[in-house]
Amino acid sequence: MLKPESEWKKKLTPEQYHVLRDKGTELPFSGKYDTFFDNGSYRCAACGNVLFTSETKYDSGCGWPAFFAANEKSIITEEDSSHGMHRIEVMCRKCGGHLGHVFDDGPKAKGGKRYCINSAALSFEKK
């Protein structure tokens, strides 16, 4: 779902645009989904693609919503060496929006992944 940046600027709030299109990061512990645990689906705030479910969300204490698994058909990952770090960036497969990063320090019993995702990149659909 490639759109001109002018359309994204109209559709998204300034914070959503900063995160999803400029690959920004919201401040830790500031996002509305960090300590939110209702049942439902987490979607891309830009295009509505289903990315995560509440069954995979957990409290990692990192300051951002954390999930131990993603809808693999809805995301893409790539190496990110920005800011002098080596990380794996997570993006929406449908619109290319930046969601956050995935790390290997998640719950070992659940596969060991921690998808650290910006709340601004998400919308929630209650089950």
Describe this protein's structure:
By secondary structure, the protein is mainly beta. The protein has a single domain (5-126), classed as Metal Binding Protein, Guanine Nucleotide Exchange Factor, Chain A. It is 11% helix and 31% strand. The protein is built from two helices and nine strands; from the N terminus they run ααβββββββββ. It has helices at residues 5-11, 14-20, and strands spanning 40-44, 50-53, 57-58, 66-67, 75-80, 87-92, 98-103, 114-117, 122-126. It has a six-stranded antiparallel sheet with strand order 3-4-8-7-6-5, with no helix packed on it. It has a three-stranded antiparallel sheet with strand order 2-1-9, with no helix packed on it. Strand 1 (40-44) and strand 2 form a beta hairpin. It starts with a helix and ends with a strand.
